[in-house]
Design brief:
- This protein has about 60 residues and is mostly beta strands.
- It has one domain.
- The chain is about 0% helix and about 25% strand.
- The protein has no helices and 5 strands.
- The strands form 2 sheets. Strands 1-5-4 form a 3-stranded mixed sheet, with no helix packed on it. It has a two-stranded antiparallel ribbon with strand order 2-3.
Length: about 60
């Protein structure tokens, strides 16, 4: 069985990013986890596998 993994594009104003996001249904929810982006502007939720990608020109700033 192939599982579909969704991809969410985020802008700088959407940070800090967390999963589950507002668009996800409550019945399929998991504990909230804040995401750290790689140098390539990508992060993956360890619970559901959703991939979060920064839009071109967006930057994740260090805390």
């Amino acid at each position: 069985m192939i599982q579909h993994v969704s991809t969410v594009e985020l802008d700088s104003k959407d940070l800090p990013a967390h999963c589950p996001n507002k668009a996800m249904t409550a019945w399929s929810s998991h504990p909230r986890v804040f995401l750290e982006f790689s140098d390539h502007g990508q992060a993956k939720c360890p619970y559901c596998g959703t991939v979060y990608r920064l839009k071109p020109g967006a930057a994740a700033h260090a805390h």
